TrEMBL record:
Residues 12-121 form the Pirin N-terminal domain. InterPro entries: Pirin, Pirin_N_dom, Quercetinase_C, RmlC-like_jellyroll, RmlC_Cupin_sf. Residues 149-235 form the Quercetin 2,3-dioxygenase C-terminal cupin domain. This is Pirin family protein. The lineage of its organism: Bacteria, Pseudomonadati, Bacteroidota, Flavobacteriia, Flavobacteriales. It comes from Flavobacterium qiangtangense. Belongs to the pirin family. Transmembrane segments: none annotated. It comes from the Bacteria.
Length: 239
């Protein structure tokens, strides 16, 4: 029997630090909701807006797969592994924190906002060697298509993480219909609506809503508005 949980955009946690405006789908920092701790191994889904010239100073992480998806503007990354890089819309950044890393993320553009998703996934291996990776995607490949951006396999499309998880991005014309077959038994799927309106199964979802579905093998997705954008995150349901 298929199970679903709907998180409407206006029910998310919200923290406005002036330079940082963040909406939390799951409990994070000062936002604690015992009913919203995680969806399977998906632990954090933050929808962040960073003012020009501001950012996150150097801070530590360990034993977490950390994914950044820029939606607008640029983010400059530095870490204790010696990496310095800039990610922009169309890029995907992953870090395996493993045994421990420090990193910082800054919006170096004084005049321009940066908007990005910060996503944390529990790994399936502890204390791995920390690693950093990023790629630039061809955004045209997600027009009326689900473009794979993350998988467990280094030889597969997108970047890889230490988890049996697959992420896809899609941008659809109005009334376009597609379906997604889950890749691993026991996984669920969490859909996050980046733009516009969709019907997933028989549930209507709108911009910045999240919908979790599990105990299913396939979901049907229909775009209800023009240029509707969706992020699908297939993840194991057991920690």
């Amino acid at each position: 029997m298929e199970n679903t949980i709907l998180h409407k955009a206006n029910t998310r946690g919200h923290a406005n630090h002036g330079w940082l405006d963040s909406h939390h789908t799951f409990s994070f920092a000062n936002y604690h909701n015992p009913d919203r701790m995680h969806f399977g191994v998906l632990r954090v889904l933050n929808d962040d807006r960073v003012d020009g010239g501001m950012g996150f100073g150097k801070h530590p992480h360990d034993n977490m797969e950390i994914i950044s998806i820029p939606l607008e503007g640029d983010l400059e990354h530095q870490d204790s592994m010696g990496n310095t890089a800039v990610i922009s819309k169309g890029d995907i950044q992953v870090m395996s924190a493993g045994t421990g890393i420090f990193h910082s993320e800054y919006n170096k553009n004084k005049e321009k906002l940066t908007k990005f998703l910060q996503i944390w996934v529990y790994p399936n291996k502890k204390n791995v060697t920390p690693r950093y990776d990023q790629i630039t995607l061809n955004e045209a490949e997600r027009h009326n298509n689900l473009q794979q951006i993350i998988s467990p396999n280094p030889d597969d499309a997108g970047v890889w993480i230490h988890q049996d998880a697959w992420f896809h991005l899609g941008k659809f014309d109005k009334d376009f219909v597609t379906s997604y077959d889950l890749k691993k038994s026991g996984n669920g799927i969490y859909a996050f609506i980046l733009k516009g309106d969709f019907k997933i199964g028989n549930i209507d979802v709108n911009e910045r809503d999240g919908l979790g579905i599990w105990d299913t093998q396939n979901i049907r997705i229909q775009a209800l508005s023009e240029d509707a954008e969706i992020l699908l995150m297939e993840v194991p349901m057991s920690l």
